[in-house]
Write a structure and sequence with these properties.
Two copies of one chain form a homodimer. Chain A is α/β, with parallel strands linked by helices. Chain A is about 30% helix and about 25% strand. Chain A has an eight-stranded parallel sheet with strand order 2-9-8-7-6-5-4-3. The longest helix of chain A is centred in the middle third of the chain and has 24 residues, at about 185-205. The two termini of chain A are about 40 Å apart. At the A-B interface, helix 5, strand 10 and helix 10 of A face helix 5, strand 10 and helix 10 of B.
Chain lengths: ~375, ~375
């Protein structure tokens, strides 16, 4: 087969990244947040790639947020300076935090308990490093965080940090509940609830005479649908850069903006069952089945041709470790395409963070759909 | 806290492997299959580690089976010689197969269509390498394979291979349907059905004058419950080495034999909800929720203390990328243990293959539960 794109020459399964879509997704988010008058702090946990980070960040120094200390180390070695480790700090991780800070990065941590504040304050006093801290506030009962109206805990944490010579930088919230929504009005309401909780918590700290320069919120859906961000200083979002079927189901990205796909090869058929078997199983696609809870269940992914055009109703209906079972959506009237042994497909992922993590590099496609370069990515902790 | 085991000093989340349990699991399977008079071909797709392979294989040369060409390359570089690539071959993968064979390994491939046989025969004729092939036979409608009674296709594939100077080595089946069972009698019946299908397909080839020296079956559950393996030459199994909660739910392993766990640190609480938050989210545990379809749903994993003793009814009830939400099983009368910030836990995985793939090494525990060594593992294709 003639192949001017290089896609036929790649070993499969592997990860493809459409650079033009990535750039457009980033530009759209930047413009939107600039219009709302807030700074943008990209989350690097989806891409885990210095090349993607350079496109997503306003400057090589940041700002950005990461989900692991491995990411903090990797990005700060490449020049990132303004960064938050966005998972509640455990005391035994403070040595690694200090090592990154000692190399010049302004790495901040988050926490939501007085126990953690004690440990951080003791660390700051011992090392003389005024470690910056954001208090995690619970936007919607989804995960971690101090309740936004729990003035006693917020103020106790703030006072303990300041007394211990750590530096209180502000509050941070994540509207994780937005992932369960799909109606634009409900998403705008979730964004407003996140804003109100953030502003309320910041107000409590300030009323107690504590500093709160940063009021940080974010999730891809609320960043997309927020109507007003008065009182917010920065918004965090990450998965929007690549997009995925889950975020498309939420309505936070358009399906045609999804920049990430898995390249697969047809390795067999069970014709009586209408199955096309590929070499992209759950190891290549991830075990994520997030769309199973949405209005449209995309199986383990939606199947496209080599140019990235979806086949009507064709999904990865089931998967084993190294086998994907491609079939028409149940009840579909579409025709199963004729895809012989060796044919190549592109599969849009349920969840870009999970699918990306199964791979160690991106094969980056240029405007003509050609494999133009390789961008490595990291995994692990 | 005093810590003679080294577990308190590890960065979390990370993967722990109990070497004694691993050795016992391997010995038990070896003894069982020796008693049934068949050879054992360990599947290396779960561990993806040369150190584990050395323990699992009868000899450094094998036999073994792998799920990716990357595994074939990695293990053959270390001396493996007798190996099957156990996923239907795509023609464009033959160059990598040939490169491994050229370095001295007897790497065999599998296929289930005349199209693939044509490509393999053409490759064998072109290169002069009598590439060994097993015909994949469908044991139970689970995935790939020629129907065991489809004499026309079996013989056509066999003849095409032999005519093209490839070498027909036999038939291979995998009773994937056994994973959906849990009753020992039903599992023994699944093993017998797998055996009958294998012997039947081998008989069809032999009756047509074709060679079929190898009759290969296997899955951890059928290897555990087979009563009789007359006519079978080898059994393949892999996940039994580590075991996991899913296989325990099937009844194929005992919960106390599970050798793999994820070490996690407590990073927070939502006390009103009965939640303990850890730093082992789905990135460390995998997105696998296989036990959701079993009688006992283990969430994202079962929670144990540092010595590996399960806390009653304590599971990872939900997970975000880097957050595990630990809670009592719904309806439990057990008491939530007091686990302060910084406490460490061990989490038994739903699926060892999926959880292992999120990590790049095993921290290997000796008989005293001490971290004795590090075994690297590979991922990717």
């Amino acid at each position: 087969m003639a192949d001017a794109t290089g896609l036929e020459a790649l070993d499969t399964p592997c990860l493809l990244l459409d650079e033009a879509r990535l750039r457009e997704n980033v530009e759209r988010m930047r413009a939107r947040l600039a219009g709302l008058g807030v700074a943008f702090r990209p989350h690097l946990k989806t891409a885990k790639s210095r090349d993607v980070a350079r496109l997503a960040m306003a400057a090589p120094e940041g700002p950005a947020i990461v989900s692991t200390l491995r990411e903090a180390e990797y990005f700060c070695e490449a020049g990132l300076r303004d960064v938050i480790y966005g998972v509640g700090i455990a005391p035994d991780k403070l040595a690694r935090v200090a090592a990154v800070r000692a190399r010049g990065a302004d790495l901040a941590v988050i926490l939501d308990s007085l126990e953690q504040a004690e440990a951080v304050a003791a660390h700051a006093a011992r090392t003389g490093d005024p470690l910056p801290v954001l208090i995690e506030v619970d936007a919607d009962g989804h995960r971690s965080g101090v309740a936004p109206d729990d003035a006693e805990t917020l103020v106790a944490i703030g006072r303990r940090l300041v007394a211990g010579a750590a530096s209180l930088r502000g509050v941070l919230l994540h509207a994780g509940h937005s992932y369960a929504l799909s109606d634009p009005e409900a998403l705008a309401d979730a964004a407003e609830a996140e804003r109100v909780a953030a502003v309320s918590a910041a107000g409590i700290l300030r009323a107690a005479g504590l500093p709160c320069p940063v009021v940080s919120v974010g999730s891809t859906p609320t960043a997309r649908f927020a109507r007003d961000l008065t009182g917010i200083t920065e918004v965090r979002a990450g998965v929007f850069m690549f997009g995925d079927l889950f975020q498309a189901g939420v309505g936070a990205v358009e399906p045609e903006d999804i920049a990430l796909s898995v390249l697969a090869t047809v390795i067999g058929h069970q014709r009586k069952k209408g199955w096309i078997i590929t070499d992209a199983g759950w190891m290549a696609l991830s075990r994520d089945r997030g769309t199973a809870r949405q209005a449209v269940d995309q199986g383990y992914g939606a199947v496209c041709d080599l140019a990235g055009r979806p086949y009507p109703d064709l999904i990865v209906a089931d998967a084993n470790q190294e086998h994907g079972i491609v079939a028409l959506r149940r009840g579909s009237g579409a025709e199963l395409p004729d895809l012989p042994i060796g044919a190549r497909l592109r599969i849009l992922p349920n969840h870009a963070c999970a699918t990306g993590a199964q791979h160690d590099r991106y094969h980056v496609l240029d405007d003509a759909g050609r494999v133009a370069k390789i961008w490595p990515r990291i995994n692990g902790w």
